[in-house]
């Protein structure tokens, strides 16, 4: 490049208004590497930045400029107003997002990474109370939302169990929601019945997050899935526009793929390959919606054929608990994503995802554990991303995203450099 | 009035030692309104204070003077010592209160309103741990106590389920209580058996709050009910002495009305109209107790007749779960408090209350939802008041009520101006 | 003594590098008493230190010197590295401890006492989140760990119930553990199956504490038991080396005594008397292990004979829930530790312990309640010690033990001087 890499990088950081730490995280490199690229060329420790980084940074800066221009015209005011539903700061569906607003949310999630990775602590929501209302068991989603709220400094009141004691006595959703709203500052609601979370949300003006409503939506899962894809692509120097996404498994009842395909369809020139056992195909209306945007959609029952050229393989569990007439205990072995088929059909830059939990019992033929040591398996990076994404959702809905950066303090304790013994080297805390 | 309203109001605030914010809250007006009354008379924005406010403030100042006098003689020392039971800082029954001490508690609750209404944050109990022990399901009471403790800066350890695992192994209440007391700084206990909370309380010196013990007491509910009546009356410019209170519904098993009538009987010249289906009348000993104080008590089975001239209509749910022989699924339609009968029999200043939950299923004939948009319906203002009242209970029992005022910080997030979409305009956060 | 007691005491505090508060706690006397000993001899309030205190302080100083010498050679680096298992900062078994490292842990627990006794507050772990995962009900252990973490300033996410919702869907322990590790900073795991906690621990690099794994270990219980013995002995001016420990009851399934005898065997010249009903004797491998260290072990079925000369009587509950073929509802009356037998066989300095819960139902013949007012009964001092010991475990595993001392602030609330109405005078908070 014509200008020196130091000038180029400094200029990029200035235009993007990012610190070195955040910039390094944004482009998926270690802070130490960035530092060596920023050293004067004569310096002994100085290193040359790889070409892909240069291209990626150029892309980011150009996109940011576009985005800013867009922001100055169509968009204005806080993000929570732009994604609002019925003028309320609530997150019920991925349909509330545009490409621009979802990426703005992810920039807030990027801000949360130093906290999620336990290098920094924030108390920006100190004094706020979350009502974490789970009318259906989902331990991990509950803990993920709860931990995210705690990491912003707030407190959490949990409820679990199939029903509130008061609802068992005939209380309406309207009353339950309005009463809880007087106690807490935000609610996450998980409920087995589709539409019930919207009913809760209608009865209150406080922020409500849909934590999954039966066959309905689970927007925070789709958001963390998309965030994971973007983060992984950023590390690999790929762009999402034009990518090839394979979704494999139970695409009929797999709620997560329904929401994810909607979000991915906000990008340009996508290719979706949908691999499912007969009878578990993706519903027509979702196919229509995605293809209206000019994306290429292919459907097949042949996993090996489908995986060819995939940038992302998104495998799903059989949602037995939602079956109405289908007769299936697990997948046949033909539908299992495992090391053999991934090695045979995918490249070194493919990433393998799954919404978890995966059924690891024999005969389930869910995503195989033989990929656990393979750096392409992104499933735990995916669940890890639940924390920054859910922190971003809370911060945006409560309108404190602008206070986070200056609220950061160093952690007092010393976390392990990698939280999982099989975590890939590029996924360390540092 | 002879003196200018500015001098009058300033003098009142000085005598009562209240800030403008707290004074405005005390008299139930917006701070903005108070500000306009305090402007110099010539000023463009200045407004004339309504006559009712002037009377109300006069009454408050006179009462405060009386109270102070009383305080200097009979009462002395911290409130928690005056309401103590067996020399312990515990709240087991409404019988622990006099009119003076209950109003002193409510002045602390008033201090908590800026926190409860999410304008201020306090961390005055930072480091303290609450044991929130629910041996009987009562999700909302549990969350209300938990959120109240969190809003004071404390942490909460919850237990739910019909029994402790240790008690299932034959552990005595004495042991359970003493062991838990070594872990936490205060306990709320909900238990299905009458008297059991007192047994817990006897085994510890740490603050214990009775969160409901079967057919026994639920003092925090009665306190928030009385606080709601006083707050509503304050807004309406009414005094509680001499008021007409209608209690309607299951007065036999409705624990809340039993405790509430005891507290109301601390006031002067009350008229109680008790409307119940045959067989669900208020127990004799409570009637005796209330009438001993010279209050007028009328009993009827005719709801319309009973509602005439009511200042407060307190409706209750059928406590089916406490029935021993009675044969009743819900109320007959004759006992339903609904819009038609309220419009027909009550004035614009009547307030309608209910301990909640209400049974909104068809045929239950519990308090009707057709009043939801009627500003006379105070049920959600009532549950909202659970937070400041329970905060006050904790602050008083732990002896930190004097530290609250100076611990207040502004909230970082921006809550909605009204937490419920149907909240009346006078019930905004601002 | 040749030198004045003031010089002696000041020198000791300097050598031990302890504040007056901590030093007083270390030697088990009230701060006020220590203060009077430190006053100039002529002063009116000055008191003479008892001979036993002088001997005890001498012992402590000498031991500390030895320990320091030892520390400079064999030991180095943070405690968590020395007790690490598979290079991880996890606590799975008491086998991870030497006498030196266990006493180092207890010095950290001593630091925690002002917090545990509610005189001080620390926020040293602010921003950290504990995953308190209880796959088996154990309310009090869960609350004890949770309260300990809260008292260090952290937040707690609890899970209870026999299984995770995700594990019910076939998720492996590996996946559950790794996913949770992305949400929280440390995990406590209680699980009904022996070995399962180690499986959880293997799948993560974050600190894991074994909260009990079936017939396996429950190391924090054994540690608080040993800490209690040492603290009680310190108060009584006794040394643990050479002490006579009686363990009575179900020694076959009583997990706590298995771990405790291993820890006690780290000391010198112990005498263990093991009293159990026929068929519930301590397993052979534990007897072998303890006797290899040269300790004296006696086994008997005669409680009265066994109690003679005991320094500690450790009674246990019948672990019916772990019986496989044994036919026993409770103990026969012959095995009950009660006032009559303690008065007949034990001296005034014997201490009586029990892991709790004790079965207080008639016919269970578990540790009798008729000792509740006897100062020798240490069971509640024992459970109280769960807080400082568990705080120490967390602080050490997370590497913040060095920050605690300077993080202390005064409590804002005023706790009772004794938390239990029957607490002995020497067990006050002050």
UniProtKB/TrEMBL annotation, chains A, B, C:
Residues 90-229 form the Aspartate/ornithine carbamoyltransferase carbamoyl-P binding domain. Keywords: Pyrimidine biosynthesis, Transferase. It catalyses: carbamoyl phosphate + L-aspartate = N-carbamoyl-L-aspartate + phosphate + H(+). Residues 242-396 form the Aspartate/ornithine carbamoyltransferase Asp/Orn-binding domain. It is an enzyme of class 2 (transferase). Belongs to the aspartate/ornithine carbamoyltransferase superfamily. ATCase family. Catalyzes the condensation of carbamoyl phosphate and aspartate to form carbamoyl aspartate and inorganic phosphate, the committed step in the de novo pyrimidine nucleotide biosynthesis pathway. This is Aspartate carbamoyltransferase. It comes from Castellaniella daejeonensis.
